[in-house]
Amino acid sequence: MTLLHFLTFACLVSALLAQTCPDTDITFLFDQSENALTASTNDPINSLTRFDILREQVANALRNSRILNTPRNIDIRVGGYGYSSSANVTSVIPKDSSPDAAIGSLVNGLFLIKNAGSWTYRGLQGITSGPTYANNILIVISSQGSAWSTNRRLLAQQEAQRVRSLGWNITAIALQGKNPIYFEELTAVNNNQPPIVINDTTNTDDPKSYRLLRPELDTIINSLCNVCPSAPPLC
């Protein structure tokens, strides 16, 4: 490799590492069904390890270098809600939290809802206002979608349309566990595009898919946070 090629490559890497976020809204919808609960490092009933893999993966994604590199005068707002089939939507991350505050809220927030099935429309019903910024994403993290109910899947599609009309861009991530994924519903939620699927069923009693969540979240965040603060030719 010539010196010129090396310097060009180094500049390209530096430019990518220097990328930051514009003013951005990031909101999560957490399916807190039995699959998400089972995906724990130890006893899922133990209050210290309930939903801990989900919590860790999301917290690490919020430490994405592009978020950390963003200047303080740029506004990054994070929110998050949990849902299941037998409880109303619960705030996990208070709306408009900073990334640091959001990470702190995850420690206790995922314990607040009663674990049960996965009714996607219930989670979407928790989104009642639009984002502050055009650069936004609503990330639906689901282990299956609404089981055995055409009506619930139709409600999910209707709620997704309503949420998009508020100005949210929705991305659905399906994490394969011991239950089947309802692709028709999650495709409708995902603006009629196939959802992101993380499929690792090497042991269906321990859904390893949750351990592979962070790279997908990083990809989503990187697509939002692609502002290069340096002047050409660096960027």
From TrEMBL:
Q: Which Gene3D superfamilies match?
A: von Willebrand factor, type A domain
Signal peptide range in chain numbering: 1-18
Q: Where is the VWFA domain?
A: 25-224
Does the keyword Cell inner membrane belong to this entry? Answer: no
Presence of keyword Signal: yes
| Keywords associated with the record | Signal
Q: Which SUPFAM superfamilies match?
A: vWA-like (SSF53300)
Supply the InterPro entries for this chain: VWF_A, vWFA_dom_sf
| Name of the protein | VWFA domain-containing protein
Species whose genome carries this gene: Lymnaea stagnalis
